[in-house]
Amino acid sequence: MRWIVNGMVGLAVVALVGLAAVSGSLYWQRVETRGEQAARDELGPLAQKQIPTVFTYDYKTVERNLTEAYRLLTPAYRREFEDRANSDIIPQARQRELVSQANVVGVGVLEAQRNSAAVMVYINRTVSEKTNRDQPIYDGARLRVEYKRIDNQWLINYITPI
């Protein structure tokens, strides 16, 4: 008789642990799904606002323009972007008197998780320099913009031309 009671208690414990595991799994799946949906809802408009800040500058104010862009980047990507800006973008902008204006014409979320996502951004850029102010160069590009959530703020983790 005692072994029947022990068996029933053991079975109840196993059932309770199994139920807790299933409940926890369903709860976590719900958290992940809601986080993914929130990322999808936030990142389209955010990319549309942020990407022109990264790609728009004037040779007279290029350092200030890029400083505004730095705050939109993750610390790791900020260092890489800042190195490239100091070695290529700023010197060329000053030497050639470049003015770059970027407009986002389309955005689509490629993939999203709770704390990271990738967005496809279509931009049109107009670049003029001192030798062609009357005839600027028009350029269209597709960019894969990877985002990472740090301290509850979406930051650009990497930008890849496609």
How would you portray this structure in words?
The chain has 162 residues and is an alpha+beta fold. The chain has a single domain (1-161), classed as VirB8 protein (Nuclear Transport Factor 2, Chain: A). 52% of the residues lie in helices and 32% in strands. Strands 1-2-3-4-5 form a five-stranded antiparallel sheet. β2 and β3 (116-128) form a beta hairpin. α1 packs antiparallel against α2. The longest helix is centred in the first third of the chain and has 54 residues, at 2-55.
- Indicate the mean pLDDT: 91
Proportion of β residues? 25-35%
Question: Do you know the CATH architecture?
Answer: Roll
- According to CATH, what is the topology? Nuclear Transport Factor 2, Chain: A
N→C terminal distance: 72 Å
Question: What radius of gyration results from the CA coordinates?
Answer: 25 Å
Count of separate structural domains:
1
Number of helices: 3
Search tags:
alpha+beta, 162 residues, 52% helix, elongated, 3 helices, five-stranded antiparallel β-sheet, Nuclear Transport Factor 2, Chain: A
Summarize the SSE layout with pairings.
Layout (H helix, E strand, L loop, with lengths): L1 H54 L1 E2 L3 H9 L4 H22 L2 E14 L3 E13 L8 E14 L2 E9 L1
Antiparallel strand pairs: 1-2, 2-3, 3-4, 4-5
Organism: Mycolicibacterium rutilum
Protein name: Mce-associated membrane protein
Keywords: Membrane
